[in-house]
Amino acid sequence: MNLVQRASPSLPKLFGLAKRPFKSLRFPGEPLDSSSSLPPLSYGIHVFHCPDAVGIVAKLSDCIASKGGNILGASVFVPENKHVFYSRSEFIFDPLKWPRKEMDEDFHKLSLTYSAMRSVVRVPNLDPKYKIGVLVSKQDHCLVDLLHQWQEGRLPVDITCVISNHHRGPNTHVHRFLERHGIPYHYLNTTKDDKREGEILELVQNTDFLVLARYMQILSGDFLKSYGKDIINIHHGLLPSFKGGKPSKQAFDAGVKLIGATTHFVTQELDAGPIIEQMVARVSHRDNLQTFVQKSENVEKQCLTMAIKSYCELRVLPYEDNKTVCSAGFCVCPFGPEHSAERVISSSKCVGDSDCTDFCPTECNIKTCVEAKCSCGCHRWNNRRCFFY
């Protein structure tokens, strides 16, 4: 069973429990509004993983509602023939009535009640950003895009360091960017017999997770065990096909019509960790190996950024040994794109004209979607419902 509840498009119903005007709701990353006489509401995320039982959703809802909170949306997943329950809830609350420490205690009591394997709550406006370390080799297109997204404030992380086994001079664009923003850059020359893993561990010991932005070295099992936290890797191929080196060449030789990129967790088995995100681009017989690589690099950048963002928003839950439960964002806010998620997941058909056959792309940029019109002339987002972040 896979249930997804979206926020209602009806404003009175949407804010019925919160009893707050729209302007008092504080979205992630949004500053306090000093002009408002009412205390702003904060936004929280809670993920829950426990043995399946009757009444879990009701207890989760009661835990939030009893402290004056209001659930904006929830995603629940109970695998077929598996006695296990997964959920991710988004809610708003008054931090003056429900202090952060008290919230942790309330959700901890709930986790004890259901013998939860995982119960995590995050309040983006109050909690510190995730600290990450980035490892990269010669190819730096993923690193450059990641740094740009971070600079624009689109990734809720603090980059503590960049580590590379490829030397970059002080006048390179990457080196200048890192120096300008005070991000340490460490060059560690690796050999077949010495991967410098001990030094890497020292540099990343205070990070929350690692990102391999085209780091072309295989991390040992000892390293993974010593680090003990999640490591996210971008593979320039559509796994489980085309594992290992030169996947674009493998795909080109196979004559595929779709190429892609895969972001996954790192495990001891090469390119076999649980998949977080996958994206594809169309190719044809007219493409050569060079255009294959170019299209692949564009997809890699998007795939890595989206995976990091999803991970930080607690949208990725481990499922069994090699799977993940991923909760996607939804659609455009009627108040304008500034209050919306950064992507649209939809296959809704245009309703402006009965003869119009246009669909919104499976994934599209909010701004592009809002400005674009179907062939019948209506804006593509007219029939969407808002899902607040």
Describe this structure in words.
This protein is an alpha/beta fold and 389 residues long. The protein has two domains: 42-122, ACT domain (Alpha-Beta Plaits, 2-Layer Sandwich); 130-326, Rossmann fold, CATH 3.40.50. It is built from ten helices and 16 strands. It has helices spanning 11-14, 56-65, 100-113, 141-151, 173-180, 197-203, 221-227, 247-254, 289-312, 366-371, and strands at 2-5, 42-51, 70-77, 84-93, 118-122, 130-136, 157-164, 185-187, 209-212, 231-235, 258-265, 275-282, 316-319, 323-326, 343-345, 363-365. Strands 8-7-6-9-10-11-12 form a seven-stranded mixed sheet. Strands 1-3-4-2-5 form a five-stranded antiparallel sheet, with helices on one face. Helix 4 (141-151) runs parallel beside helix 9 (289-312). The radius of gyration is 22 Å and the shape is globular. The two termini are 24 Å apart.
CATH superfamily descriptor of the largest domain: Formyl transferase, N-terminal domain
Numbering strands along the chain, what is their spatial order in the largest sheet? Answer: 8-7-6-9-10-11-12
Strand content range: 15-25%
Order of helices and strands: EHEHEEHEEHEHEHEHEHEEHEEEEH
Measured between the Cα atoms of the first and last residue, the distance is 24 Å
Helical element count?
10
Tell me the total number of β-strands: 16
Major β-sheet, in short?
Answer: 7 strands, mixed
The CATH architecture designation of the largest domain is: 3-Layer(aba) Sandwich
| Secondary structure: helix percent | 25-40%
Taken from the alpha-carbon principal axes, the silhouette is: globular
CATH T-level fold name of the largest domain: Rossmann fold
* CATH class value of the largest domain: Alpha Beta
List segments where confidence is low: pLDDT < 50 over at least 5 consecutive residues: 1-24, 32-37, 330-372, 374-389
Please state the CA-atom Rg, rounded to the nearest Å. Answer: 22 Å
